[in-house]
Amino acid sequence: MARLTLAAGEWVELRGANGSGKTTLLRALCGLLPREGKIQCRGRIAFVGHRNGNAGLLTPLENLRWHRRLHDVPAVDAELLDALEHVGLLRVAAQPVQQLSQGQQRRLALARLLLSDAEVWLLDEPYAALDVAASGLLDELLAAHCRKGGAALVSSHSPLALANRVIDLSWDDFPSAGRTAADSAQAIA
Amino acid sequence: MKDMLKRLWHRLGSPRWFFQMMAPWQWWLGLLAALLLLTGTFWGLVYAPADYQQGESFRIIYVHVPTVIVAQSVYMALGISGFVLLVWRMKLADVALKAMVPFGMALTALGLFTGAVWGRPTWGTYWEWTDARLISTLILLFLYFGLYALRESLSSAEAAGRGCAILAIVGLVNIPVIKYSVEWWTTLHQGETITLTRIRMPPEMYIPLLINLLGMYCLFGYVVIARMRNEILRRERETTWVAAWLRGKKDDVGNGVIDGH
Amino acid sequence: MSAFTGQLVRELQLAGRARADVLNPVIFLLLAITLFALALEGKPEVLREHAPSILWVLVLLTNMLALDGMFRRDLDDGSLEQLLLPPAAAGIALLDKLLVQWLVTGLLIVLLSPLLGMILNLPATVYPLLALVLLAGTPAVSFIGAIGAALTAGARRGSALLALLVLPMLVPVLIFGVSAVNRALEGEAPRAELYWLGAISLASLMAAPFATQAGLRITLEQ
Known about the structure:
The structure holds three protein chains of three kinds.
Chain A: E1 2-6, E2 11-15, H1 22-30, E3 39-42, E4 45-48, H2 60-70, H3 77-86, H4 102-115, E5 120-124, H5 132-147, E6 151-156, E7 165-168, E8 183-188
Parallel strand pairs in A: 1-8, 2-6, 2-7, 3-8, 4-5, 5-6
Chain B: H1 2-11, H2 15-47, H3 61-88, H4 91-123, H5 132-153, H6 157-188, H7 203-235, H8 240-257
Helix pairs in contact in B: 2-7, 3-4, 3-6, 3-7, 4-5, 4-6, 4-7, 5-6
Chain C: H1 2-17, H2 19-39, H3 44-68, H4 72-77, H5 79-84, H6 90-119, H7 127-152, H8 158-166, H9 171-185, H10 191-221
Helix pairs in contact in C: 1-6, 2-3, 2-6, 3-6, 3-7, 3-8, 3-9, 6-7, 6-10, 7-8, 7-9, 7-10, 9-10
């Protein structure tokens, strides 16, 4: 039986070696994996997984448009371009995503995060493909998000300096089979 | 009554309860199945009067018809288990699903085989494409293959169970449509097949058929319960109750039964 | 409403940019029909006699090819996850996917049907009915097939498995479809068959979004 709580404004680092269940836990929290136990969440969840969630054949702008509309929000180009500018992708806004680098594709996922109104961010190893500048950008985004009252659970191999709190998925904190263990989590945002 | 059903439902959530409760059922059903099938088959194949049109070859229906009927019932049970699995996430439903598929598949194949044996003397061929029942049974066999293949191909056991549940439900919904369309098709291209409904059977003929049908259902019960209990043992092998049960078995073997009492 | 148009636009854009994926199945259809024509030594009466059967069986197989990759790209790039995450309008988005899948296979086949009829030596008078029969039946193939595609998207060697799962369920469509074209060749209007095909297509249209979603969630769990 495990319990996880995220409070508003908290930035929690989910640490653990490969295979310790970070991805499984995050996916279970999103609802992508079945779980035993309850999740109470005040607010919406945004998730960025290992794969970025961008269609390679479409441009960043088209991807963002799709994502907005998927959540039943009209897509205003000006807003989308602003977000792209914030993450440094304005220059390549009209190129197919598959022509962009890994880091750029990850930045697109960050732009998506920016645009979503989600209160809770669940990020699975977001720093993995980012260079120094982009990592700084992500730090800044996370800080701003938490300042506004959002919460974030970020998994990572290496320690995150700016996180408020760390959850370490070593064998004694959480049972290893994250999904079959009863996990009950509360994210209050 | 309602409370009893509710309690039963709750209990079904526990594989261990099922394992223990069903032990006597398994053996009794097995016994009953053996008795009924032996009686029915013997009676049908030896004692019942020969059909005036088809002669001795007719006798195979005493095996063929129950087989096909039960094969379809198995699929229906599969669909229901799948539904229960998806809606209530009952673990036992997944166990049931996994247990029933190979049995249903074997029974359907047997049905086709006995159908072919019947076909040879009756129509001159082993297979008749204008017999709606045979075609429907063949398609049923393919549906079973599909379930089996899907379970093998999905890597996570739980996902495999639910995937098969979906497939079973979609299949179940399709079966009436398939049967209707095949019947419609074969009546368009009518061959000289004699369908069962057009044979009027005197009691000496249909009683052994019923006995075999009942026996076949008992066989279904026996095989599925046995397979389910095996599967439960396999899935729960890490638990203490299984360890205790296995130890109990070892004690039986060690103490009384084999050493001679 | 945004969700409906958003997904529709995206699917059409993707189809437009991966034109080979869209055209290959149809080219396969033409090729396969050609093979039959060659194998039957091009004898016109034989072709005409067997045209309905050949056509429908090949339409089914072509769809198997087209359906195989339906969800794979989205699965690989992570868009599928995004689609199924809670606030997203998954049901509507999947409906769009199903519709576009039919547009780029079934509808294309319907539009090509006069050409197919010509290759199979069918009289021109039958072409309109042929198109109508295909119009009534191909949606069912796409929608029922999509359920199979959803279940097998993550499996290796998914295409053979997809065919095994879906083709038995498409037997009614095959039966009514072939019968309809046969009747059209005899000069009668195949009313009963058309009603059946239409009914199956509508029913599968209603059921497919749910079943597909359930199947995709299972695929994502692996």
